[in-house]
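ARCHIVE CARD
Drawer: 12
Card no.: 0347
Subject: one protein chain, sequence and derived structure
Cross-reference: see card 0346
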Amino acid sequence: MRRIYSIVLSLAAFMILVPTVGAQKTQKSHVIGFYNLENLFDTYHDEGKNDYEYLPEGANQWTEVKYRKKLHNMAEVIRAMKDENKVWHTVLGVSEVENRNVLEELVIQPEIAEANYQIVHYDGPDRRGVDCALFYRPDQFTLLESRSIPFTFDSQDIVFSMTPEEQANFRTRDVLEVRGTIGGEMFAFYVTHLPSRIGGKGGDLRSRGAEIIHENAMRLTREYPGIKIVVMGDMNDNPFDESMVTYLHGKETVYEVGEGDFFDPFLSMIKAGYGSLAYQGVWSIFDIIMVNNSLVNPAKGTYGIRPIVKKKFYGRVFQKPFMTQQEGQYKGTPKRTMSNGAFINGYSDHYPTYIVISR
C-alpha cells in the first residue's frame, strides 16, 4: 500500500511539474538555506532503525494523519520563505529526515511542488535512522557528484573521552557532500548534523565532525582551485564554540577570512541577540551556514555572499508568528511538532536559516 501511494504521488507530481522543466535559467541572486525538520518520520518501521516511537502504536502514536500534517507544515515554512524572498531556495539542506520516502513526499506537497526540488540523500548509520539531505532546483544548480562521508576517530589533535570499545560502537549521522555548478561556477555544499549535546557531552565529537568537514573542504579546494564552498547544518554548537571556531576555522567578519577559513555570519548575529532555537530559556544558533573565502572575496562578476538583514548581517534566522508558540510555558519559542508527549501540530524546534549570494 505504501509503494502504491508513493507511486500515485510521484505521478501526480510529474504531471504538475513537466511544464516547468526546461532550459536552465541563471538568476542573479540565489537563496541557500538549512532547516532541521525535527523528526520527519513516516509511519512505517525501517529495518534496523530505532524508529519505534514514530509508529502508530509507538509512544507518539504517530498516525498517517499526523504525518500528513507534518509534511504540510514543513512545506508551509519553505513556501513562506519563498514568498518573502520572491524566489525558491536554489539549495536547501535539511536534517532529521528518516528516509528518501519522506523527502519524496515532502517535495510534492502542493505548497512547494512548483519548485521541482530534486533530492540528494544517502541512508546513514544513525541508530534512530535520521539523516541529512539536500534539495536543489535543477534549473539553477547542476549536480555533478555527491557522497556520504562517515564519522571516524582518526584525528591527530583531538583527545576523545570514549574508550576504543565505545568508539567502535558509536553511530552518528554521515556528512553529505554535494558538488555542482551554479551559473557555470563550481560549488560544493556540506550538510551536517553533528553529534548531540545530551548530558552536556560530545564536545570532542562535534570538534571531530567539524574537523572532518574542514579536511574534505580543503581537499576540494586543492582539486578545484577557486571552488565556492558552503557548510551548513545543525551543529549542536553555537558559532563561538570550539568546533566552529577552531576546527571549522569560523571567522566573525569578512575581513578576517583567508585561505582555509570560513566566514560564519551567525557569530555576530548570536552576539546581537538572534537565535534559532531555545532550551531552558536560553537562545542558541545551532543552525549555522558558513562560506569559504571564494564567496567572501569573489572575483569580479562572480557569486559572493551579500548582507541581507539591516544591510549588516549576512545571515537570516527565518521566523514567523505561525511558526512560534503563542502561549503557555514555551511562548515565543519555535512551535515544535510534539510537546510533553502530545501532538500540537507544530513545525520544528528549530527556525530555518539562510544566506543569499549574488553576482
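Annotation on reverse: The chain has a mean pLDDT of 93. The domain at 30-358 is CATH 3.60.10.10 (Deoxyribonuclease I; Chain A).
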